[in-house]
Fold each of these.
Amino acid sequence: MTGKSAAPEVRVPYDGLLDLATAAFTARGVPGERARQAAVALCYGDLVGMGSHGTVNLTRLYLPLLEEGRADPTASPAVLADHGAAVLVDARRSLGLWQASDAMDLAVERAARHGVGLVSVRGGTHFGCAGYHARRAAEHGMVGLVASNCGRQRIARPPGGRAALLGTNPLGVAAPAGEHPPFVLDMSTTAAPTGRVRAAARAGQPVPPGWLADEDGRSVTDPAAFDRGEAHLLWLGADAGVFKGFGLGLMVEVLSALVAGSGFGPADEALTGDGRPSGRDDDIGMLTVAVAPALLRGPDAVARDAERLFGSVLACPPVDADAPVRYPGWPEAERARHHREHGVPLEPPVHAELTELAASLGLSLPLRLPTARDAVRAGGESCSRDTGAGESPAHTDAVPAHGGER
């Protein structure tokens, strides 16, 4: 595949993007407060540089889910079992962008009482970036974990197998880091989520070796081959005989689907598949966990140790003096700060789609015009193009979870 130059990004004010997403959800029947909560979760992807998991999915994924009735805009999740520290919830096809946050908030509430809170969810729908929901626990001084399967959708094959059995099965973990930005690990268990592959295809850019392979196991770097059915998605650490990514993906399936009793990928109907993606991402299962270490040994001790732990990572002598050592969550926090001040970058086609959507709602999507200061920063500041998850379609660092587009 021959790469081509990407078109210049378009920057819009974050508040304008948030208002548009809120209005779009409200227009589809989502109550106002929940619509805003869903919009914040969705726009988080654009804000922190995970553009393949942000508003690109508004018209491609979330609005169609509501319009087709696969997500219920007014659903109220029901508690099926409550044992204090452990709760089972039926999401009833509510919009996962807000429902997953509510599940984590409930886990945080229970952890404050019991030291740990576990909320298992069945009947869920797409929820955006896993790290966004895990991060809610870190904001309360807790450790948060989010694991989600893809319902009955099957995208990736087990090592040595010919049928697709699992989704990209994202995993998010977050923790406070003292005075530093929270640690936020947001990853798919496949080598890349489908959103990143499709973002590369839209940009006309190749993907790195190790993301895709053909039927004979040869590396494929043309991202469009995935949707043409000519390549399948690989797991993290996909060397022959290595179960790293697949083992993690299967672990997520157990934690999210087996515990909750939701739909799951490995099932009889999957065994006759031809290797291409199959099934629908309905009845998603998820696990949200909050751990309150302060309840075990006091908040001051935890805060002090978190500061030392992540401070030591940041202080590690770098190989390249111009590339200081960072941890997951640090680059995203820097991008979020920069994008709030200078506008959220969107791919031109995505901006065009959102502009059309805004017009249909009687709104406008304002541009954030570049200033002289932006030009100086673009030449000398790295945070908006910093290395890390989600910034470039073909980036090879830790890949963000798919929480929105699997």
Amino acid sequence: MSELDARLRDEIDDQVAEALDAYLAERGAPRPRRAWPVVVTVALGVATTWLVPGAAWAAWLAIAVANLGYSLPWNRTG
């Protein structure tokens, strides 16, 4: 490749980096997710399994759905 190609690649790389920086600055930094909702729901599942073993499958299914919904990226705010 010629020197012109290397300079052109560097210019494109700089423009992409500037555009990405501007996008991230406009969007704002994402807030970190907290783990306490997952820990609390698992603790409730353990308590339900211990207290009402016949309903454990329903409790764990609800916990899985709730934690999956909490973890998905479309649920993020900010």
Amino acid sequence: MGRELNAYERALAEDRRVIREMLRVTTGGAHVGLAVTVLMVALFAAFGGARSALTVGGAVAAWFALTLMVVIFRGRRRWAAVTRAYVLTFGWGGWL
């Protein structure tokens, strides 16, 4: 088996685990991110006009499409690819 970690390596491993847990995104958080995005696009439509709403909505759609292409390229298929791209695009909502 592997060697035993020294105190520094144990502390570093624990710090990395805490950071991974802190930055974890979920589907629930992605739903919140999507809701906030839809609200912002609606506000842009109400106050900035249709052109502003289409610009913001198009940018979000392009980002999702790019993310989906990367996820598919990296080996995910079908619904798993869509779910991963959805979480990567809107998962920031879990941090609100």
